[in-house]
């Protein structure tokens, strides 16, 4: 049975905010798309909810934080992103709720994006492999925080501190979702996406993945999505409209 075709993502926007749980999350599937958009002159900002400080078993969190933040900044630079925020919430134990919504609403108000991008927050990746708890908590919170950001009476202390309400987010896009119905052609920027993932060298080494190859891994996902989009390589996204009645 032939897989459903992907609908091309709209690209009539100027500013995007990417909110994910950890350094490296963007690079496992969405960095090539970001490289495409920055090459078009779009502004893209990264926001890491944690610094991934619990991600390397052989490195203490206080040391790991510095390594992973440094790698993320370089990884972002490779795909044309020069602004990376780190919210500093604790890695591995994020919980969906008001506190997380508050933390995410602040950068939405600060950067005033047209599009907000997050990672897959479904229970699985489409098979039996379970998603990670931080990914699920952040993605769910992003959907609510985007709406919170437009309401001046929600987290009103942020308004008093100078962060004005922002209700201009058109969509939230979740990359890598097993329910993705949209996609973007990443063929011309695939190499930049690979280099961006390879910039997380200390993290990848810390995982102990013997003979793991970033290009091979990313090609495995991008080719399937490309087939559905009619391109060599593509990145799939699930689209959540933020308007009423859509």
Task: Note down, in words, how this protein is organized.
With 246 residues, this protein is of the alpha/beta class. The protein has helices spanning 31-39, 61-78, 98-111, 133-149, 156-160, 190-198, 201-207, 214-229; strands at 7-8, 15-20, 43-48, 84-86, 115-119, 171-175, 182-185, 234-241. Strands 1-7-8-6-5-2-3-4 form an eight-stranded mixed beta sheet, sandwiched between helices. Helix 1 (31-39) links the parallel strand 2 and strand 3. The model has no long low-confidence stretch (mean pLDDT 97).
* Biggest sheet architecture: 8 strands, mixed
CA(first)-CA(last) distance: 29 Å
Radius of gyration: 17 Å
**Spatial strand arrangement across the major sheet:** 1-7-8-6-5-2-3-4
Structural class: alpha/beta
Approximate shape: globular
Q: Regions with pLDDT < 50 over 5+ consecutive residues?
A: none
Order of helices and strands: EEHEHEHEHHEEHHHE
Helix fraction, binned, reads 25-40%
The number of strands is 8
Per DSSP, the total helix count is 8
Q: In percent terms, what proportion of residues is strand?
A: 15-25%
Mean pLDDT reading:
97
Task: Give the gist of this structure.
This protein is of the alpha/beta class and 246 residues long. It has helices at 31-39, 61-78, 98-111, 133-149, 156-160, 190-198, 201-207, 214-229, and strands at 7-8, 15-20, 43-48, 84-86, 115-119, 171-175, 182-185, 234-241.
